[in-house]
Amino acid sequence: MKALEEKILREGEVLPGHVLKVGSFLNQQIDVPFMNEMASEGARLFAGVPVTKVLTVEASGIALGYAVASRLNVPMVFAKKSKTANVSGDLLQAKVFSYTHNTFYTATVSAEYLTGRDTVLLVDDFLANGEALKGLAELARQGGAKIAGALIAVEKGFQKGGDALRKAGLRVESLAIIDEMSPEGGVRFRS
Ligand code: G4P
């Protein structure tokens, strides 16, 4: 998505450690009209696929997940990263390793929200090593839901999670794929 690439070049900042800061529109402040544009592009990519729910993970996946679900006119479910009092009953749970934070968390969804009647579209803001996406796919599998594919805003192509998941048969659509980035050299997108 050309507009996202241009937005990253204009507003993004490459930090040391291969981290792209996009707090001005995606991770802290949300550029709502632009989020809606990304969601429309995502909905266009998955047009004709009978999605019944969008599945994402808190926190930063929620904004894009909501916008995409709104376009598809389906509910959005988000996995929680810690068990709280408002998640009860039968649970679907997947252990996810975060390379960025070097910790594990347990992605959790109440079993009532993902069932064999569902076809889910997985949505997230970033795709790096693919651990979060694998966790979401595992939650869908546990619930018996089918997976239509995954929609990602920014894929860090040099971290290979996306390519591995595609090889494994998952349809992964990323609105921008970064093949190289550094504080000195800036960002290079996959063409
Ligand atoms: P993976 O899921 O693809 O394996 O990636 P990883 O564990 O490395 O990512 C962990 C977190 O860091 C995720 O959010 C992910 O979205 C985010 N992330 C990864 N690389 C970047 C980056 O270059 N820039 C930004 N802005 N975020 C990145 P999280 O920690 O779970 O945070 P949140 O969703 O609660 O905000």
| Distance between the amino and carboxyl termini | 11 Å
Secondary-structure arrangement, i.e. CATH architecture: 3-Layer(aba) Sandwich
The gross shape turns out to be globular
Ligands, deduplicated? guanosine-5',3'-tetraphosphate
* Number of helices, where a helix is a run of at least 4 consecutive DSSP H or I residues: 6
Report Rg: 16 Å
Overall pLDDT metric: 96
Which class do the helix and strand fractions yield? alpha/beta
Q: What fold name stands as the CATH topology? A: Rossmann fold
Number of strands: 10
Q: Which regions contain 5 or more consecutive residues with pLDDT less than 50? A: none
Note down, in words, how this protein is organized.
The chain is α/β, with parallel strands linked by helices. It has one domain (2-189): Rossmann fold, CATH 3.40.50. It is 32% helix and 35% strand. It contains six helices and ten strands. It has helices at 2-11, 23-27, 32-45, 61-72, 131-143, 161-167; strands at residues 13-15, 19-21, 53-57, 76-79, 91-98, 103-110, 119-127, 146-156, 172-182, 186-189. The chain has a six-stranded mixed sheet with strand order 4-3-7-8-9-10, with helices on both faces. A two-stranded antiparallel sheet has the order 1-2. Strands 5-6 form a two-stranded antiparallel ribbon. Helix 4 links the parallel strand 3 and strand 4. Helix 3 (32-45) crosses helix 4 (61-72). The mean pLDDT is 96. The structure holds guanosine-5',3'-tetraphosphate (G4P).
